Amino acid sequence: MAGLWSAEGGALWRALFAASAGRRDLADDITAEAFARLIAYQRTVREPVPWLFRTAFRLLAKELRRERTSSTEPVDEIASDRVAPLSPALTQALQVLTMEQRIAIFLHYYADLPIRDVAQLSGTTQAAVRVRLHKARRRLRDVLDREEVLHVA
Amino acid sequence: MSRELRELLGEFDAYGPSEGVYQVATERARVLTGTSDSRLPKVGRVFAIGAALAALTVCIALLALAAHSRSTAPRNDGSNTKLRPVTQAQLDVLVTSLRVPLLKLNAQILIANTALDAYKANPTPATALRWRQVILNALGRIGHDVRPLKSIVVPRPLTPAWTDFVRSESNDGASVVITGSDLGNNATPDLLPLNYVKPIDHLKVVLLLCVAANHLKLPAWVGGLGTGTPNMPIVDPVMHPGLPVFVNVLAPRIYKLQQDITFATTHLHTYMTASTVAGVGSLEGLRMIQAAGRIHREDYASLMAMTVPPHLRPAWTSFMRMVQATATAIRVEGTYVKDNNLRAAKAGRRAYIRKVEQPIVRLKTALAKYAARTHAKLPDWINKLGTGT
User: Fold this and answer.
1) What's the pTM?
2) Is the CB of A29 inside 8 Å of chain B's CB atoms?
3) How many Å apart are CA A129 and CA A109, to the nearest integer?
4) Between A and B, how many residue pairs show a Cβ–Cβ distance under 8 A?
5) Does the interface predicted TM-score (ipTM) exceed 0.85?
6) β partners of residue A23
7) For A30, which of A114, B202, B216, B314 is 20 to 30 Å away at the CA?
8) Sign of the Cα pseudo-torsion (B353, B354, B360, B361, in order)
9) Do residues B251 and B379 both lie within one domain?
């Protein structure tokens, strides 16, 4: 299991870090929880890597949903306290996307995975991944164009 | 667009998981494997509760029947009584309570026997005098160490062997009182007829036979008991100059470690008693995590910087590993408390207590063994360590 951690631990953590729009605390906690579950149930898992990623994304979605519905903390406070200092362009780009779109963009463009693998790791169909990538690119184009205009000005 | 996106996302290269995430995962996995069967589906739960109730009823009926038949059965004189086999739980309880006193005793036995070897090999008069003193000291300590063993209650099938063992060890201790008094009167006691101390071998054989007969498991340390163990290095009976210095340097650092562990445990208890009060979890959990951070950064670093006497190094290395494991255990438990996850905190509490108690107990045993071997006297504060004082 230590081998899997050294091979996939960093990648999983970065995927969660991107999917949570730069939440270091969530990335740490959920990476640990997903690995813990894999260690605990490894006998019943046939393909550990996709299982690990899918479990982690599901846990992250659940945690973000729980925070939205039950947290009394103001959003700004969370951001200043636990979010890593990413560049403004990247922060803005991540914030205009949904969690699923962030995952698709990260796995496809950062991890250089083909659509088939992205679908397998995020537990969805290839068609759904294509749609997510298309919508994400359309939103990002607006943001990146605006950013470029600001730079030029 | 793709190129721009790749450049933008390249920033993630600079980030990675925090230290200790994998350790947290392994700790959490242990908790999960311990409680994995507790999440039954709703219908399953109803069946499980029903089955448990039925089993309980059957047990009560069987117990009542047994009590009835016992009260009406003819009285047994005990000579041919077939004893119930020892269970793994009974053996575990016994072995846990025996571990520290028996290992201490075994160390003294090894010292006494090695010193007897050296004494019987006709050394020079000067070294003979020193070895004689070592033998007397070790046998005296055997007599002293066997006292707490007398109060240990053992399962019935092991009682005869246990009684023999305690009596033999006490006799060794008692024989020393006589020779010791000779020495006090400036007489020269003759140690040559003194036999090797070996009742612990017999006890080990009895334990191993009991385990084999009942298909049980014994911890590995039991196999290392006895006089047949490969010789432990015995230092020449001259006071080792390094130990007092080491102990003096150790004192403030070990107190700080103990203080941090006690701090974390106190906050865990506070949470357990007031978990329903709003905000208690996050406050107490934060304090526990801070304590774990202090142990990991400050205490570990200050202990790591110490110069350790050579014979103490293996024990010291495992002690340092246990300090790290303690910090991780406190952090994991602190995270549960911070998240107000009472169920997980309760499930992990036993492992937590075992982890945080381990390093200081281990260090105390190692220091006691080392002091016995080097004939140094340890200060009293070491005995008070780990007892909450």
Assistant:
1) 0.37
2) yes
3) 13
4) 89
5) no
6) A83
7) A114
8) positive
9) yes
